[in-house]
Each structure stands twice: as structure tokens, then as C-alpha cells.
From TrEMBL:
This is Ubiquitin-like-conjugating enzyme ATG10. GO terms for molecular function: Atg12 conjugating enzyme activity. PANTHER family: UBIQUITIN-LIKE-CONJUGATING ENZYME ATG10. Gene3D superfamilies: 3.30.1460.50. It comes from Dendryphion nanum.
Amino acid sequence: MTTTVERFPLLSASEFDAACKHLVESFETYGVNQHSWLSVEVVDRYSVKYVRITKPLPNIHQNLGDSTTLPGEPNYEDFEDDEELLSTNSTPQMVIEYDIILSPSYQVPVLYFSIIDPNFKLPPTMQTLYQYVIPPQYNEQTRSVGAIGGITVTDHPHTNFPVFFIHPCQTSAVMEASAGENELNPYEYMLMWIGSLGGYIGLNVPLALTSGIKVGSPLPQTTVNSPWMSKNPRMMDE
């Protein structure tokens, strides 16, 4: 029997592990019904487990060519067409890896993310972040410590590679505002967390992954209609 998060909006280690496992299982079952995410896996590094979501970077190969000059912002409206171009392009595919790691101090999930670029043309800089990851409509909201806590470059806590990360200082407030009076189980918590924060950085919740949620669950309605999601309807993918 699935239980609700005991100390919401805080998440325990066991609840986080359960949410990660459920997310992987849901992707294995329903992932064929969506095209936004390439993979979802649990990473076990030095006895610490966290979940990694991989998705394509919008197609920029034809713009980059052999030049190191960074072109303009990607066209997010043509994202599905870009995926088809990426799959047929001989150039190695660029992807974004999103690592969701539980913060032992804040006791909430924290998002670390990076562009995996086989040609090393996109360094982990704020310029790269705003040109290729953050949708243009969220530029102003993410440039300051506000709704989501601010985005910076830091060392990944388990790989030591430079990555982008969203500071968790506002996460509890975001989750409380999103959930309202509803109680959530760990998986519902995880989907709502991704839906409330991830859209700012191009990580939207595939609707297919809500297929396994029981009828009557508050998650789909509260996620879509939360104060955060109602202002940002693109935070869920078809």
C-alpha cells in the first residue's frame, strides 16, 4: 500500500528512493507513449542512489558546424521535428542529463543538469544555459533568486564535474504552493516537483507518466492547476 509523504514538503531518504524506483518503473511501462525523455535510470555511485533523466537537446548541429561561435536561441516550438533530425544526423547527438539528488540538509530533491556534448562545443557556462536549455519565456524568472531559487554552475556532488544546479532554498515553498491541501505519495511528490521546477529548464513531465496514477489522485489536476503550473502551462509535455 502506498503511503503519503510523512513530513511534507520534506522528503525522507526512503521516500526519495521509492519515488526514484517508481519513476523508473513508470518510464519502462509508459515511456513508449511519449517522445520527450530518452531514458530514466537510477544511478548508484559510492552507495548513494539518485535518478537521472536524459532527453535530447534541441537540434543545433547544422548551426554549429565547425565553428565555435554560439548561435542564437533554439526554436522550442519545433522540438519534435528537431528530434527527428537528430536521429538521422550523422553528428553525435547532444543530450541533457538531469540528475535528481536528495539534499541531506534541505531534505528535498535537488536538480543538477548538464549538456553532454561529444564535440565539446558547449561549455558549462551561463551563456550556454540561456541559449540552449532555458526556454526564452523563462529567462527573466531564472536570472534572479526568485520563484525557483536561482540557477548557478557548481561541481556535481558525486562526479565533481561542473554542472548547472537549482538551489533548493525555495523548493519547500514551491511544493507547498503546488500541492495545496492535497496529500501526495512519494511518486506524486516527484512528478509534482519536476512539473513545478523542471519546466524552467526544459524538463517537462510527459503526460504518459501519469498513466499509472490511481483514479482520484490529486496529482494531475493540482500539478496542472498549481499557482506555478497555471502560469507556465508548457511545464507538461504531451
